[in-house]
Amino acid sequence: MPVIINPFDASGYTLAEMTQAINILPNVYTRLGEMGLFRFEGVTQRSVIIEQAEGVLNLLPTVPLGGPATVANRDTRSMRSFTVPWIPHDDVITPQDIQGVRGFAVADAADPLATTMERKLTRMRVKHAQTREYMEVNALRGIVKDGAGVTLYNYFTEFGLAQLQVDFTLGTAATNVQGKVRDVLRKVETELKGETMTGVLALVSPEYFDKLISHVKVEEAYKYYSSTGAQPLREDTRRRFPFAGIIFEEYNATVTLATGATETLIPAGEGIAFALGTLDTFVTYGAPANLIKTVNTVGLPIYARQIARPDGSAIEVKTEASVLPVNKRPRMAVRIFSSN
Q1: Count of domains in the chain?
Q2: What phi and psi values does residue 144 have, to the nearest 5 degrees?
Q3: Fewer beta carbons within 10 Å, N or C terminal of the chain?
Q4: Which domain does 235 fall in, by range?
Q5: Is residue 241 a part of any domain in this protein?
């Protein structure tokens, strides 16, 4: 009969092994993750100090012991300390979960516990991925929210910045839509402040996308694009549409919050336009796990571990992530909308 691995002996699953396993499982349902927009950077502390100078947010750097310290801006309002949100998520493996489960290997070497563990970790990984996507989409807009939809930080409010926005007034036939696009492009370029970019992408709601492509001054361009460049018989042309220097992409994603309520990642009738190909604008900082053995280590995207219940009735599977997404140039992400 198959032998169930004892995960708590010398040959079992360690914190490092489970953490490595959950971090290599594929991301699901993460558009920003697919793009690789937010670069992950581990930090060794549970909080980070962010300084704002000329509209750019930066972490304070480390220096060699005894070296010269960085000089703070005399305006104390330009510096803030932010606690990295802690996101734990647990599950449990019971005898009923394992009973009758066959492993992926041959019958005499099948490991039903490993099979069940992988399924649990995959589901837990997806939930963490959705949470991080939700946090990073909001970070584009200069806001940090938790999985319950509660605003933790508003970088515009914290640092006294004003979000840039452009009203496309798509309900007016006479609107110069190309002029609106140029306005967005110039705003993004102005706020680069030393950064580089390869283009501008706008993630927009279905309502905004429909208004855009049906506008009298855009309709012909969209018809030409959908009939030639996008090969409409093989592709879903509603997803992406390049126009006048911006790629407009419909992003119709909804998440279920911890409260049970649902929230769309892009508000109805709106969009967010931002630079692509930047080097150090979009960063998600990760703190170490809330464990003794990870104190002062560089944080990883997700941690996983398991604990046996003393009575042998179950194995608790524990995961956690501590992530803080930051748009270092919050004014570079321009809110676009149509007031009519």
Answers
A1: 1
A2: -110, 120
A3: N
A4: 15-337
A5: yes
Q: Is the pLDDT of residue 233 over 80?
A: no
pTM of the model: 0.84
Q: Is residue 1 part of a domain?
A: no
Q: Assess if residue 2 is contained within a domain.
A: no
Residues 6+ apart with CB under 8 A from 182: 244, 245
Q: What's the CA gap between 189 and 126, in Å, rounded?
A: 35
Q: Hey, what amino acid is at 196?
A: T
- Mind giving me the DSSP string for 74-114? S-GGGEEEEEPPEEEEEEEE-HHHHTT---SS-GGG--HHH
pLDDT tens per residue, range 89-108: 999 999 888 876 665 544 44
Residues of the chain above pLDDT 90, percent: 57
Q: Is the pLDDT of residue 35 over 50?
A: yes
- The pair of three-digit structure tokens given for residue 102, joined into one six-digit string: 């066959």
- 168: domain CATH number? 3.90.1690
Which pLDDT value is given to residue 3?
41
Indicate the pairing of strand 270-276 with strand 199-204: antiparallel
